[in-house]
Amino acid sequence: VDRSNFKTCDQSSFCRRQRATPEGRNVYVVVMSSLHVEPSSLSMQLLNLDTKERLQMELSGLRGNMVRLKINEVNPLSKRYEPPIGDVLVKEPEKDNLHMMLSSSSSVSVALGDTTVVVNANPFRIDFIMDKEPVMSVNAKGLLNIEHLREKSHFRVNKEEPAGEEEPAGEEGADKEEENGEKEQKEPEKTEEEKATDDQDRDLWEETFKTHTDSKPKGPSSVGLDVSFPGFEHVYGLPEHADSLLLKSTKSTDPYRLYNLDVFEYELNSPMALYGSVPVLIAHSEKRTLGMFWMNVAETWIDIRSVIADKTMFSKLVDFVKGDSDIPQIDTHWFSESGIIDVMFLLGPKPNNVFQQYAKLTGTTALPPLFAIAYHQSRWNYNDEEDVASVVAGYDEHDIPLDVLWLDIEHTDGKRYFTWDAHKFPNSVDMINKVAAKGRKMVTIIDPHIKKDDNYFVHKEATEKGHYVKNKDGSDYEGWCWPGSSGWLDFLNPEVRQFWANKLQPDEYVGSTLDLYTWNDMNEPSVFNGPEITMHKDAVHFGGWEHRDVHNMYGTYLHRSTFEGQLQRSDNQKRPFVLSRAFFAGSQRYGAVWTGDNTGEWTHLKIALPMLMTLNLVGITLSGADVGGFFKNPEPELLTRWYQAAAYQPFFRAHAHLDTRRREPWLLPAEHLRAVREAVRTRYSLLPYWYTLFYNAESTGSPIMKPLWVDFPAEKDTFAIEDEHLVGSALLVHPVTDAGVAGVNVYLPGTDQVWYSVDTYEKFTGGRQHYIAVNLEKIPVFQRGGFIIPRKMRIRRAAILAKNDPYTLVVTLDRKGRARGDLYIDDYQTFDYRQGAYIHKEFILEDSQLTSKSLNPSQSGFVTKSWLERVIVAGVTTKPTSIKLTGNSVQPQQLDFTFDPSKQLLTIRKPGINIAEDFVISFQ
Amino acid sequence: TGRIERPRGVAISKASFYLPDRPFVCFDGSATISFEKVNDDYCDCTDASDEPGTSACPNGSFHCTNAGHKPQYIPSSRVNDGICDCCDGTDEYDSDAQCTNYCKELGKKAREEAERQRQLLEEGRKVYLDYAVRGKESVKEKQERLEQLRAEKDEAERRKNELEGVKKEAEVPETEAKEQHKKAWEEEKARLQSNQENERSDNAFKILDTNNDGVVSVEEMQEHSEFDIDTDGTVSVEEAKEYLEDSEQVDYETFHGKVWPNIKEIYTKEKEKQEAQEEELAKGDTEQPPEPTVAPDTTTPPPEEPVTTPTPTAQPPEVDPLLEPEEDLHHNYDDDEEDRYNEDEDDDDDDEEEKEEDKKAEVEPPSSASDTDDKMPEYDENTKGLIELADKAREDFNEADRKFRDIESEISKLESLLDIDFGGETEFYPLYGECFEMTDREYTYKLCPFDKATQRSKNGGSETSLGKWSHWDGPDGNKYSVMKFEKGQNCWNGPDRSVKVNVNCGKENQLLTATEPNKCEYEFQFVTPTACSQVPSPADESHDEL
Q1: Rounded to whole angstroms, what are the CA distances from B59 to A395, A679, A798, B485?
Q2: Of A61, A86, A893, B287, which residue is least crowded by CB atoms under 10 Å?
Q3: What do you get for the CA distance between the two ends of chain A, in Å?
Q4: Which among A264, A484, A806 has the least Cβ separation from residue B311?
Q5: Which of A267, A355, A200, A400 is nearest to A704 (CA)?
């Protein structure tokens, strides 16, 4: 990366000013007389003792164990930006009653469920108490800092505070005159300090980075607040950064930055901003898990510190601080360039509660069509129709399943999206139909920059209708991207979103069919000649908002518009599929994201794990990294290991840069090809399990690719593990991410747990590390005792072609000989399941009896031809004498089986019963 | 003609292994099962032999008879997957697919195609045989020529050495005489130069001595601005004295001996400058300095900020740093063919510029190295005679040497030619020295077997080398099916360009297609009768099972 293209905190004036707020500043007090109590909320004013400025604060209870805190200026000079309901938040959150506990002149306490929230008046502070312990504290460091909007002419530099604090409002008149006088006198000879102050002055109303000047017509407008987490040492979240799973102290680095940027050849282990932003932090300890969602779509930075709790601060509130031992604490400091402070505190107390709480606010990953979680092949670029045909044929020839083939920017007529290169793709409909004839799909790239060419219909219409983002002077914004000079559609405008959705309809998108899906790239937005390779902050959007106010949401609006276009083209029948590079909180509602332009190096394979786990923790479950790495040529071993790892990651797509060598699997040496084929086939055999996970996650918001601690929250050894992960709760995967290793150390959690190698059914005990020897063929994967995984062992060319195939249930018993699992089936592509047209089975094995029970008995007419082919039970100590199947539609019958005592493995042959039916298989 | 009963998906040749009246033994012996379990849609044998007609085994294959066309094995995973794979449709006996049997049409087409191929091979083979004969003859000729040259080489070398001796002998007296003559001339020249110097000193004295009083005084020196050492606009007394050996004035003797050597350079330079100025005035301003021949870049103005590493996928420009920044960007994403075109054009321009400069240099008069225009006088008759003799000896030697070198170079050419592998029967020899072109939308590609492969933009510009002949690269047993050209022009941030040429049997020599599957790695399809070495099989040998 060329770091000089991107701002450091020091080069971003609000970051510099907010970060310089002195700890313990504590200038705010609650004006108790302003307290207004409603059943579900408290509102009050905060007074800045220095400046006498006032803030309006509202604290409300939300259904599902959440508290929302909003702080805004009492009467801002102009309205501060708040994202419309439905854009970030799915809907207005339902409120929940707060129970008044105590109200005095010095504090007010309310209770929400098991949590007590104490608002301390002087200094202003909010403490969250659970089980008599303080668990969160707002403004404990006194860093609350809102830069009040002001008239430029009223501005003067506050000499006492060179860090650039806002000046007292009440004394403006007098100060102004005085200042003017001073200035005239002092002009010729200035001290260094004064020059520094002048610089600060200039940055308040105008800010220059490299050759770009941001005009900042509204002046300084940032908001900042600190939140402490006493009793916590581990915090996660805040994607997107190419960094560890655990958030690190930023004491000696820049803060974590959230500002969607197109970063060329990004660096690892850095708090630098990347393509997407989710301002969600999760704090976790053995006792509880909490979350915090900073709902602000402007540029945001977050400082993290790991400290020892200041016990005196909480001594009046609780007893726990009487203990002798030091209590760890994480301090966080959040600041955004504009907007308001609007924070949702997710009170857990368990990991799954936090996920569900966040899902209530921003929604869950919509159940994807089956092909979306199968294998995707992409490259910049597949050159022409013949190339497409030959790559697809290659997969059949080498018997590797494939579901989706992707076309990058070169497929267009001169980077005009919604068009085709007439020479390379003269018959795109035929091409798509041929690919679709084998159950496959295609994807084309469609980016938000529109070529400024008067003969290009999208540009022409967009110009006529005024659909482009504007410059500050009102003219159409213009910048450089792939097509050369381009305009950017203003997706904040609902009309523009509809315009875009219309463009996706087959009658407008000539040469497309309903088997063609979409990839939205460059939507940070990437502007090659813009500041930090993105849009100018003083560009103007729908409603007169500046780009600075909405930057981090821009990409999501495109993602959403494309999603809506796909919905419309099938009359809301078929589930859309759209991949986006930029994202924000809530992007999960619109489809998949990937980690952008990574590199074909081992370190990038390794970093994909924490990056994808972090995305999963904040709701963006359908996410992946380019298999093989976008830049550079991975060696065969690396590419093989990448396939093996990505086969267990939610979005599984190989992609490569134009300059790289071809790397379709059959170009690998024979032994590597075998391993890659096996990896992809294993993914396909597990698709019933993956699909069921996605179905369940749609209602719960649970992550799918999970850090171990999510399922073992009290096991401290798991908290920092990032080289292995869970898929759902039944599988643990430890990818091999180093060259030439003979084995890896795998931590298997749960002292009371048993784990089975999925390849050999060898049994391992939990709660400790195991050295597992590896060869090129496979990576270590374990199925947890107590789980049942449905699989399809017949591997077809594409996932949908296996729709009628029979199931194998793989049962791994826990220490008590029990196991459970479920299976979800529908038509894999439409929304009919929302009308009940699906099958959901629960399998329970206990007391030597496997029971299959329908969780959705009506099925609304949905039927399947699939039947139960075999049941494999691992961990069976004694051979059964006979095995009997009973079900409603079949005569009770004895089943054939084999038993391998050395492996404790029982295989039941061909129960044959339709999988939708309830049945019991009992062992004698 | 009795039909043999056999389970679904089994070829006749394997039918005897599946007998309904006895248990079935897996081919690999992994299990013995009752015959009802054959094709019961559950895999019992590790080698898949119990499920020839279902998709139950992961590694099995299904046999379709395809009456009317060729029988075929397909992977078991394609049985009942909803896609008709066999032309007789037998693979989809239990799926939603509505397969029609189109084996007859397919068979007819395949037989027609086979016949076409057979004819092609037959015709092509004639040419191939002819090429092989011609190739062998030519190679034989070359070998004979090589033998002949090797013999001639010895004689030529002997003669060359002999004449070299003669030449050296003749050059000794020649050199002596010439040196003597030159020495005499140099002495004479020195004398002449000294005279000239005196003359100039005289002239300068006369000019400086304005009042003709026989001495140059400080005041007289002060009239001449060239003596203004500190360039303050006036020649001070000190400055004048500095040149006049610290005296108020100097007479001619002192001037000539001491002052002139010191002021000679500065005085002469000033003189020349004045003359030049006068000349310039006389000429007027009709002549302009030459314009560079490169056309000015007329692309659009640059964007706000030149982007250095603009995007995830952009790179520094491949060729010309003078390109506008937006061009750079373009550059990386557009066909890089365009860039190559630009690159070539630029190269051309540079070349032309250089050439022009060369021409200019030739036209300009040689710099005045010597002050005297006098030339060395002619050699005397004796020396002339010696030179003539030596010239003759040199000429004789040079000719002998040239002849020797010619032979040597022809030998080396023949050796490297005969080193080339022209195929098992030398059948590719006739392609040597030939070139074949094809033109697509943007480029003309040229293939010169055993020499090089190139690409040229249709819009003009020079050729880009895609590779030089390297080696045959076909798989074992079919070595002559792929030609490899390597070490072409280097790609920015990439490899040297290279070409893989697939060589197939065709009626005529023809370059069919040229593609670039990997950046800078090209692939050509070339057909030639030379590749029709295979003996055509007799027509209609396809035997259907039914």
Answers
A1: 16, 16, 17, 40
A2: B287
A3: 65
A4: A264
A5: A355
Residue the block writes with tokens 């400290």: A307
| Bridge partners of residue A118, in order along the sequence | A109, A127
From chain A, pick out residues whose CB is under 8 angstroms from the CB of B312. 262-265, 526, 596-597, 630
- Measured between alpha carbons, how far is residue A593 from residues A431, A575, A626, A900 in Å? 26, 16, 11, 44
Round to whole Å and give the CA distance between B346 and A488.
Answer: 35
DSSP codes, B440-483: -SSEEEEEETTTEEEEEETT----EEEEEEEEE-PPTT-GGGEE
Q: Tell me whether residues B313 and A529 touch, CB distance under 8 A.
A: no
Contacts of B33 in chain A (CB under 8 A): none
A127 annotated active-site: no
Instruction: Give catalytic status of residue A331 as yes or no.
Output: no
Contacts with A801 from chain B: Cβ below 8 Å: 81-83
Tell me, yes or no, if B61 comes closer than 8 A to chain A by beta carbon.
no
- Give the pLDDT score at B311: 44
Residue B449 is which amino acid? Answer: P
pLDDT value at residue B502: 97
Rounded CA separation A496/A488 (Å): 11
Contact flag B81-A1 (C-beta cutoff 8 Å): no
Q: Is A654 exposed, middle or buried (0-12, 13-18, 19+ CB in 10 A)?
A: buried
Contacts of B421 (CB under 8 A, 6+ apart): B471, B472
Instruction: Give the integer Cα–Cα distance in Å for A350 and A702.
Output: 12
> What is d(CA B310, CA B316) in angstroms, rounded to the nearest whole number?
9
Nearest to A661 among B75, B325, B518 (CB): B518
Helix (H) or strand (E) holding B546: none
Q: What separation in angstroms does the CA of A496 have from each of A448, A467, A578, B68, B273?
A: 11, 6, 18, 59, 74
> Averaged in consecutive runs of 10 residues, what is the pLDDT profile of chain B (546 residues)?
75 93 95 96 97 96 96 97 97 94 96 93 93 94 94 92 93 90 88 85 85 86 82 83 84 85 80 73 53 44 45 43 41 41 42 44 42 70 90 93 95 94 94 95 95 93 94 94 96 88 95 92 96 77 46
All residues at 6 or more sequence positions from A149 whose CB lies less than 8 Å from its CB, including other chains: A73, A76, A77, A78, A80, A218, A219, A221
CA distance A262 to chain B (A): 6
Distance of CA B436 to the CA centre of its chain: 17
Residues linked to residue A146 through DSSP beta bridges, in sequence order: A223
Q: Which two tokens stand for residue B53?
A: 């007609």
Q: Report the half-sphere exposure of A382 (CA within 13 A, side-chain side).
A: 25
Q: How far is CA A904 from the centre of its chain?
A: 41
> ipTM beyond 0.85?
yes
Counted across chains A and B, CB pairs separated by less than 8 A come out at: 115
Q: Which of A51, A19, A253, A238 is nearest to A141 (CA)?
A: A19
Q: Give B409→chain A minimum CA distance, Å.
A: 41
Asked if the Cβ–Cβ distance from A212 to B330 is below 8 Å, we say no
Q: Using an 8 Å Cβ cutoff, are A592 and A622 in contact? A: yes
By the 10 Å C-beta count (0-12 exposed, 13-18 middle, 19+ buried), A282 is classed as: buried
% of chain A at pLDDT higher than 70 = 94
Sort B412 into a burial class: Cβ within 10 Å, 0-12 / 13-18 / 19+: exposed
Query: What crossing angle do the helices spanning B260-283 and B103-208 adopt, rounded to 10°?
Result: 120
Q: Pick the residue of A659, A664, A682, A867 with the most B CBs within 10 A to test the interface with B by mutation.
A: A659
Chain A residues inside the 8 Å CB shell of B521 = 661
Report the b/e string of A24-41 with b at 16+ CB within 10 A: ebbbbbbbbeeeeeeebb
Are the C-beta atoms of residues A51 and A167 closer than 8 Å to each other? yes
